[in-house]
Input
Amino acid sequence: MTTITWYGHAVFTVTDGSTTLLIDPFLTGNPTAAVTADALEPTAILVTHGHSDHLGDAVEISRRTGAPIIAVYELALFLAGKGVTVTPGNIGGTVAAGDAVVKFVPAVHSSTIDEDGEFIPAGVPAGFVIRLSGKSIYFAGDTALFQDMELIGDEGLDVAILPIGGQYTMGAAEAVKAVAKLRPKVVIPGHFNTFPTIAADPVAFSREVSASTEARTVVLEPGQSTAI
Ligand code: NI
Ligand code: MN
Output
């Protein structure tokens, strides 16, 4: 069994009980965070891109737990310079993480690291397709809707975790179109209602998904889990 937990914003864990992947751990400074960074014990940390609302507490958690950070090459090497263990990859590539296999897939967005007000280029942004316990889970990261989501859908997705908050990513209407391309069994919305600028109604989103696709939407509250 695979369990997915949402901790608010784009922070998720995916676990089979022995391998626990922590994704985009923005907890400190996240007004909706359902946990503090020191309470998590991941076996690996996945970071989609360098923006502070995704990189978050990754370095601190990695230092404390020894969990490697999986990220696109340029971001991974920057983080290695902070003294943490990294597993670099790049779009189209696959890396192992305990029992899981993680593939880097495209995201239409940007990626910089904000360090003391200076913006450092961090390579390209990524999404991930995670295979764990026979399930495949697509984590879109920050992205616009793009046509090649159809290719990601060809992987045969059990779950798609999609941003619906708009402004910096696709909004709910585009996310419904993304579901049609991705063809997952289950959709979990994220990256909304953290801040007033990315307000969205996940129940309305769920209704639209049901009206136009076969997928079932699971709307989590921060701190809630679902088993797949
Ligand atoms: Ni971003
Ligand atoms: Mn973001």
Notes: Residues 49, 51, 54, 109, 142, 168 surround nickel (II) ion (ligand 1) (CB under 6 Å). Residues 3-222 form a domain with the Metallo-beta-lactamase; Chain A fold (CATH 3.60.15.10). The chain is about 20% helix and 30% strand. The mean pLDDT is 98.
